[in-house]
Amino acid sequence: MAEEQTVTTLSGLTKASILLMTLGAETAAQVLKHLSESEIEKLTAEIVGLREVSQEMVDKVLDEFEQVKSSLPSQPFIGKQFAVQVLEQAVGGEKAAELLRRSPEPDRRKPFERLWELEASRIAGLLASEHPQVAALVLTYLPAEKAAMVLSEMEASLQPPIAARICSMGEIDPEVVTAIDEVLHTSMVTRQTQVVTSPPGPKVLAEILNNASRSTEQAVVESLLREDPALGQQVRGMMFLFEDITKLDDRTVQVVLREIDQEDLRLALKGADDNIKELVFRNMSERAAETLKEDLELAGQVRDKDIEVAQQRIAGVVRQLLASGKIEISSESQETGQ
Asked: Among 120, 124, 283, 302, which is least packed by CB within 10 angstroms?
């Protein structure tokens, strides 16, 4: 993208692409679920084609988005208005006012809630430069599964001191927690704009698709392979789909089988080809394999959507194991497409 461009000369598609890339892969994938296939394909092509985007340009796009969002009609107090109307009709105006005064205030935002939707690697990046005590505090406020993923993304040398401080942590002044939350939020916003300064389009797209539905994955990748085979292969090479399980060696498959939900496995295999089924069966005990085969034979019709979701969850587990270094795809398998 030429540097002399201004935000007013950018197309709506380009602005949408820049905005999408600032959201992170997980959130961007949620946005894609609400778009049509043609809209997804257009955004895909635009994201991949983006080159260097200045931080100033990103700031202007975000400012414009905020202005548009602020101009949308809203009813900020509709819940309270409804309560007033109902209570007044039920018990009269004076009693309604008394009940409303005694009603508790709505729950405020929880500490570090704004971090919950970020990818674990991005949270780890935010905490990498913080004192281990700060990192430990943040992790205690995250959902346990997310906290575990963040800790696994951090450097090995940081993990023990952070874990030790989590164990020994006492009560923390709420004002201190709030102050740390605000500092990290400011840092997060700054990093969100900086991360797009020189965007690796194919990598960003691969991350988004890894978090999207199977149907979205397939539609976008197939479209890319048709329009630009080289680029499509590049994006495809950065992804891990359910079918890529055949690239794993037997020992790695055994690790994966220990980590995944057995009901997900049963559903996923209902829509899998024979190569994948054979790979799974030979890496189970004979008794477990026979039981699974019987379950598959006796199972009735299964919705395609349920199969898709199960396969997506299994692929997600494999991606987590790859990211944590617990498993790897051998270079031989990658080259031969085993």
From this structure: 302
